[in-house]
Amino acid sequence: MGKVVTVNRRARHDYHILETYEAGIVLTGTEVKSLRAGRANLQDSYARVENGELFLYNMHISPYDQGNRFNHEPKRTRKLLMHKREIMRLLGKSREKGLTLVPLKVYFNERGKAKVELALARGKKAIDKREDIAARDARREIERALRGKI
Question: According to the model, what pLDDT value does residue 150 have?
């Protein structure tokens, strides 16, 4: 994996990640330049299958500073690129009750292509989130104790 542009930290907090997929993104020139500058945000974004195609909603890519009047719209809907059978598999799974497609991160691969890591996820209940926080705190305490003894 190449350069990571942005990571959706809330996704792992709010969802149980079941499976992950990689998809390409259809972008304009100014969007690519903004991504290379690291100016993107995945908060509140999600993906959906419509008419056999995969789309990403609410991903914010800041307008490019040196862009002119042809600069892009920051929160436009972007098409994602995957093989047809993968999209159909995602469509079937995302129709299950409680499952959704959430972007985890946006990055450039070794060949310089912009990719998004999508996750098939199920929403967590409040008690699950509290359990995760308690487990993380316990792990930190154990690590602190071990560090102190060495």
Answer: 56
